[in-house]
């Protein structure tokens, strides 16, 4: 069984990959295009890999779980905070489709450049990547149907909640003892609800009082 197919089967067996849409995104946006060259042989391992500057490309099963929670629909406008090498950005673009749009934010300049280059190599047209601190979101394109955060925050930034559309969904890990992952939904009236899932580990979310590199 090819390695990518095997990885997808493993994620299905774990129960973290449950929809055809997310499976197709994993097949289309192959992780091997987003890991450093010296780690290509490990690209289908179900664990995070370093991409430089103390950052990682996330564990595939964790990404699958987050994408299932986020439930991106065709035509959605999506904000990807902590884009890194832009694998999650590409996956979100596949889920949003040609009529959708993804804005990727990466606070480390060299990683933002790396991510842009990765996307250009595989021709992902419906994406913009900006060198910016995701704590502030990206007001220029707000509001967003979906927001994904790939770094653990002490608390959910109000800026991101304000940039989420009514009927929108936001997924963010927390920097707490339990490794909680939050799914926050906003209803038609703008009321917020949240569900918690424990057991995740992420690099820390760098907040407004820390410099963007």
Report what the structure shows.
- The chain starts with a helix and ends in a 16-residue tail after the last strand.
- The strands form two sheets. It has a seven-stranded mixed beta sheet with strand order 5-4-3-6-7-8-9.
- 28% of the residues lie in helices and 24% in strands.
- α5 links the parallel β4 and β5.
- The chain is an alpha/beta fold and 213 residues long.
- The chain is built from six helices and nine strands.
- The protein is globular and about 45 Å long.
- It has helices at 3-14, 20-28, 60-70, 87-96, 109-121, 158-162; strands at residues 49-52, 55-57, 77-81, 101-106, 127-131, 144-149, 164-173, 181-186, 192-197.
- The chain has one domain: Vaccinia Virus protein VP39 (Rossmann fold), CATH 3.40.50.150.
Q: Can you tell me the CATH architecture?
A: 3-Layer(aba) Sandwich
Which CATH class?
Alpha Beta
* Count of folded domains: 1
Number of strands: 9
Provide the CATH superfamily.
Answer: Vaccinia Virus protein VP39
- Biggest β-sheet strands, sense, barrel: 7 strands, mixed
Overall body shape: globular
Helix and strand pattern: HHEEHEHEHEEHEEE
Task: List the strand order in the largest sheet.
Answer: 5-4-3-6-7-8-9
The first-to-last residue Cα distance is 42 Å
Compute the average pLDDT: 89
Q: What name does the CATH topology carry?
A: Rossmann fold
Poorly predicted regions are 209-213
Percentage beta strand: 15-25%
